[in-house]
TrEMBL record:
It comes from the Eukaryota. Signal peptide: none annotated. GO terms for molecular function: monoacylglycerol lipase activity; short-chain carboxylesterase activity. The active site is at 94 (charge relay system), 234 (charge relay system), 263 (charge relay system). It comes from Lotharella globosa. This is AB hydrolase-1 domain-containing protein. Belongs to the AB hydrolase superfamily. AB hydrolase 4 family. SUPFAM superfamilies: alpha/beta-Hydrolases (SSF53474). It holds the Pfam family Abhydrolase_1. Residues 10-266 form the AB hydrolase-1 domain. InterPro entries: AB_hydrolase_1, AB_hydrolase_4_sf, AB_hydrolase_fold, ABHD4.
Length: 300
């Protein structure tokens, strides 16, 4: 993005799903549609994602470390790109949705320059222990877990020299040993979380990590407009994960559920016939999110 934007022109910070980044079609599609509506757009590639190198022996989590990275990004946007008066919206998909929801709930304790003004999330695994159980069902394990695990293991291999200097230093400064053979041989996301995420972000167990990262327990603390969109038939996130009661109790939350859509699979006929390289992206989800954000800005 250029530095010539108006001082009050709205900005958008996008956080993709697990292991994804600025190259993902749904991220690029949102960028295109947002730009048409006069939004300036930035994408946060989490560590090791979007072809970014890993320079410390940590990737990212759904909570610790990642929230600090978002804080630094928002502060940079305020100071270098957007200016103090420009609204900033945070958008997240899947694991990125968990990060954004957790951020929105906790940003009241942050410096004013580190706060976003509104947010939207899609296909968030609100209750991660419950989502983990769904992730381990046969279909999800064969289709999603296997593919995502291969993707993350590939990223680890690309940056293996960072992890070979054992012991590595965790987020809290502890020296920890990694079993690289086990890590590179991981067959599930849970195995990667056990060997890498928990050790480098100071969680005693995978279940403790998932419990801490679950954003449903913090939605009561959200004080900005937050749109959350989920599909009832999402194979990774059971309907029982969706925070209906939390949304009823907090007027800042708007929860939208669709009968179909799977996991980030909102595809419509118009999009599939578009022929512009974004045929698997849905105009519907982009319109829904952008209409909500535009309305929230208008009412602010």
């Amino acid at each position: 993005s250029s530095s010539s934007s108006s001082s009050d022109q709205p900005w958008m910070l996008l956080v993709s799903g697990l292991g994804g980044g600025s190259e993902d079609s749904y991220v690029q599609s949102m960028c295109v549609e947002a730009a048409k509506r006069n939004w300036r757009v930035a994408v946060l590639n989490m560590r090791g994602c979007g072809n970014s190198p890993v320079i410390s022996p940590r990737f990212f989590s759904a909570m610790r470390g990642s929230l600090e990275d978002v804080r630094e990004t928002v502060r940079y946007m305020r100071e270098e790109l957007a200016g103090p008066r420009a609204p900033i919206a945070a958008l997240g998909w899947s694991n990125g949705a968990t990060i954004v929801n957790n951020y929105a709930a906790q940003q009241g304790a942050f410096d004013a320059k580190e706060r976003v003004d509104l947010a939207a999330t899609m296909c968030c695994p609100f209750d991660m222990p419950m989502a983990d159980r769904g992730f381990r069902k046969p279909f999800s394990r064969m289709v999603y877990d296997r593919a995502l695990t291969r993707k993350l293991v590939s990223k680890i291999k690309e940056n293996i020299e960072v992890f070979e200097e054992l012991p590595v230093v965790s987020l809290e400064g502890k020296r920890v040993e990694l079993d690289l053979e086990r890590l590179l041989g991981a067959r599930t996301i849970r195995e990667i979380d056990a060997e890498l995420t928990c050790k480098t972000f100071d969680y005693p167990t995978v279940d403790a990590y998932y419990a801490d990262s679950s954003c449903n327990q913090r939605l009561k603390d959200v004080e900005i407009p937050l749109l959350m969109v989920s599909a009832i038939d999402d194979p990774l996130i059971p309907d029982s994960c969706i925070p209906y009661e939390e949304a009823r109790r907090n007027d800042n939350l708007m929860l939208v559920t669709t009968r179909h859509g799977g996991h980030l699979g909102w595809v419509d006929e118009a999009a599939s016939a578009r022929g512009d390289g974004r045929r698997w992206c849905s105009d519907w989800i982009e319109r829904t999110v952008l209409n909500h954000l535009d309305a929230a800005l208008h009412l602010a």
